[in-house]
Design a protein that fits this description.
Elements: E1 3-8, H1 11-15, H2 19-28, E2 31-37, H3 41-53, E3 58-62, H4 75-82, E4 87-96, H5 104-121, E5 125-130, H6 133-150, E6 161-163, H7 170-178, E7 182-185, H8 195-202, E8 209-211, H9 233-244, H10 248-263
Helix pairs in contact: 5-6, 8-9, 9-10
């Protein structure tokens, strides 16, 4: 299989000096491309450096996520990073009201700022949403409108972004699809209680489907207890393929092509 892990965090691997080993295991598993995702000052610097060091294997996404509300944020520095050819998206950004609903207004303000930042640069977004479906749809709807105006002269409108690590219901998925977004599934689809999520994944159009690990989190079964890493995206492909009634090889091929289209990368 030729696989593309569209969402991987490398902070902990870099801290322990294991990035090379992680990339080697990914290659053995057939993972040819990965998007290294930032979300803070330090992680944005890291992913751009790693993408520069591993061209053709790693691409980078940079942005300020919802947990950076009270942290340093330098938009000029972020703009310089986003201009690097290795950067293919703005993210991870978004909303999470599960633990911190009291910060919802501030989260929305930061998310809106990041969406504006992405629109100004014509970069797609990688979005986190948890317990915030309505606000996510409202803000992504506004972004989609601006996105269409930005690319009004382009024959084939580039995809505006990804709802990563999707855990929502069918109604949320339909709203995202109607706005033009891709939907990415992680190792959560392999969990015992994920039957409804697998059913939702079964109905996502093949040309809007992506896969990811969100490593080092959310290790898929049967590898629970181990640290997640890009090599395990092969298991995500297997589970989704079974749910959709196809082969892992066919699903890997489709999601790889989708990722290239999302990030506007050559094959």
């Amino acid at each position: 299989m030729k696989l593309f892990d569209t969402h991987a965090h490398f902070d902990s691997f870099a801290a322990e000096g294991s990035v090379g080993a992680v990339l080697s295991r990914a290659a053995v598993a057939g993972v040819e491309r990965m998007c290294a995702v930032g979300s803070s000052e330090a992680s944005n610097d890291l992913v751009v450096r790693l993408a520069r060091e591993n061209p053709g294997v790693l691409a980078a996404a940079v942005g300020y996520d919802r947990d950076q509300l009270d942290k340093p944020r330098d938009l000029d520095k972020l703009a310089a990073l986003a201009a690097d050819p290795a950067v293919v998206a703005v993210g991870e950004i978004g909303l999470d009201y599960y633990y911190s609903a009291e910060t919802a207004p501030a989260q929305r303000a930061l998310f809106g700022q990041m969406l504006e930042f992405a629109a100004h640069r014509g970069l797609p977004v990688i979005v986190h949403s948890r317990y915030a479906d309505d606000d996510t749809i409202d803000l992504l709807g506004e972004f989609s409108t601006v996105w269409k105006k930005t690319f009004h002269s382009v024959e084939n409108l580039p995809p505006p972004g990804i709802l990563h690590c999707f855990t929502g219901d069918a109604a949320f998925a339909e709203e995202l699809l109607a706005l033009g977004y891709f939907i990415s599934f992680s190792g959560i689809v392999s969990f015992n209680n994920a039957g409804p999520l697998r059913e939702t994944a079964r109905h996502v159009p093949e040309d809007r489907l992506l896969i990811e690990t969100d490593c080092p989190y959310l290790t898929p079964k049967p590898f629970r207890g181990k640290v997640n890493e890009p090599a395990f995206v092969a298991r995500v492909a297997e589970v989704l393929a079974e749910a959709r009634g196809t082969t892992a090889e066919a699903l890997a091929e489709a999601t790889f092509a989708n990722a290239l289209r999302m990030f506007r990368m050559e094959g």
